[in-house]
Amino acid sequence: MSVKVNIVSNYKNVKLPTGTKLLIRKSCNATLKLEGIESQAEVDVTLVNDEEIKEMNSKYRNIDSATDVLSFPLSENGKFDKNPETGALMLGDIVISVDHALTQSNLYGHSIEREIAFLTIHSMLHLLGYDHEQGGLQQMTMREKEENVLDALGLAINKI
Length: 160
Hints:
- The protein is α/β, with parallel strands linked by helices.
- The protein has five helices and four strands.
- The chain has a single domain, classed as Collagenase (Catalytic Domain).
- The two termini are 29 Å apart.
């Protein structure tokens, strides 16, 4: 199992820490591993500012505000298309607002690296079909999975 992670950084406001792209790739791989996905997979990750993510949130979700992360799954009823050239499952797209990640890392008192890892994992779980919007058991399940992946990466809350 491996995931090809295509990362595009449109974010120019602040220089991201060295290793941020590697951390995003590790977060994607760890999520798939803990979910037991054996297939080759592909995901696209774009790093943007609050203005760009606000435009996308408005266009695709009719919510006229910035958010921390957007997920655009390519699956339909749990089935993924395969890249005809590689045979890899095409999971979808992740868009992370680095502005939001910086704000939230300060708010929660942890590193920007941990926040970007969390947002990547959170979005990967959305690409895999998990949802927390209804609250309840689904939200608890997703939160537990997020913490399990962060722990596997050595980024659990109690270790920071």
